[in-house]
Design a protein that fits this description.
Number of helices: 9
CATH architecture: Alpha-Beta Barrel
CATH superfamily: Aldolase class I
CATH topology: TIM Barrel
Order of helices and strands: EHEHEHEHEHEHEHEHHEE
Strand order of the largest sheet: 1-2-3-4-5-6-7-8
Number of strands: 10
CATH class: Alpha Beta
Shape: globular
Radius of gyration: 20 Å
Distance between the termini: 48 Å
Oligomer: single chain
Structural class: alpha/beta
């Protein structure tokens, strides 16, 4: 299976990023980040968390007025007692809704039959509301791949326009991600997205692997913000895919300012050794680099508006 020529990014900085300890964006900061993301070429933002649906929908309505060109999406748990009411409210405020059904037997409901039932009920409710709907499967990389495929097929049959495979605890290896995405992709006609966490430092590698296995979209956050060790970083995924000849629509030159703005708003600094946008990425200290520094750089500094520097200490 060939990787797609173009991959969609669903930015989750204003959803997943708010699970970062200590991060709390004001309404003005959210609007500012949304505008910067749009200017950088991102076309979809996930702005509603399944545990904060009423609160986040209020802010989503403000984002809709401030950035009407941006596609807004959000998450609703299929198992919540108030699910139908939340779906109805989300349908009025968002362009897309993705219903979440954790596939792990350790997350309620435990039985596979109950998970399938909730999935179908939720997507049928979305169809009645006339909202574009997808299905997301948390813990997808930790379960029997056959069951994951069965859930994905059921979602497509129930009207889902996309499915998302979640590496919820960041434990998957690229080999495991490749297997999961390839099997799900082969069983479906609708797009498959991948949502990776960085607990083992593999989020970007797993995202690239997912794309090579056929994923049409990736969940990303600016600076890799997110729960625990964070998520796949937008700037890293955009650059890696660019270097592999895969378009994302993201303006690479906009990454340093975007990342800097989110760092200031979140109060989570960008490490100087962070890939792509860190202050030290193009600073050379070793004398061995002086003759041909480009041999020690994975991409041209001009792609992100940077310049190489030589330092003595």
């Amino acid at each position: 299976m060939k990787a797609p020529r173009r991959v969609a990014f669903r930015d989750s900085t204003l959803r997943e990023g708010l699970d970062t300890p200590g991060v709390a964006f004001s309404a003005a900061q959210r609007i500012g980040i949304a505008k910067r993301l749009l200017a950088a070429g991102v076309r979809e933002m996930e702005v509603v968390a399944p545990a904060r649906v009423p609160h986040d929908l209020t802010l989503a309505r403000r984002l809709r007025k401030a950035v009407p060109e941006m596609e807004l999406s959000g998450l609703v748990y299929a198992s919540r007692p108030q699910r139908d009411a939340e779906l109805a409210e989300a349908a009025r405020a968002l362009d897309r809704v993705d219903v979440l059904v954790p596939v792990s037997p350790h997350r309620a409901p435990a039985s596979r039959a109950a998970k399938l039932r909730l999935l179908r009920e939720s997507l049928e409710a979305c169809a009645r509301l006339g909202v574009r709907a997808g299905a997301g499967f948390p813990n997808a990389t930790q379960v029997d791949p056959a069951f994951l495929v069965a859930m994905a097929v059921a979602a497509e049959r129930a009207g889902a326009s996309r499915v998302t495979v979640y590496d919820t605890n960041g434990s998957a290896t690229p080999a495991a991600v490749e297997q999961s995405i390839r099997r799900v992709r082969r069983a479906l006609r609708i797009p498959v997205y991948f949502h990776g966490h960085d607990d083992l430092g593999l989020a970007t590698a797993n995202a690239l692997t997912a794309v090579m296995a056929g994923a049409a979209g990736l969940d990303v956050t600016v600076n890799g913000l997110g729960d625990r060790a964070g998520n796949c970083a937008l700037e890293q995924a955009a650059m890696v895919l660019h270097l592999h000849g895969i378009a994302t629509g993201v303006r690479l030159a906009a990454m340093p300012r975007l990342c800097g703005a989110v760092a200031r708003a979140s109060r989570v600094a960008v490490s100087p050794i962070a890939p792509i946008v860190g202050d030290y990425v193009f600073r050379h200290r070793s004398p061995a680099h002086l003759a041909a520094p480009q041999l020690f750089e994975p991409f041209d500094p001009a792609l992100v508006g940077a310049r190489r520097k030589f330092v003595k200490r």
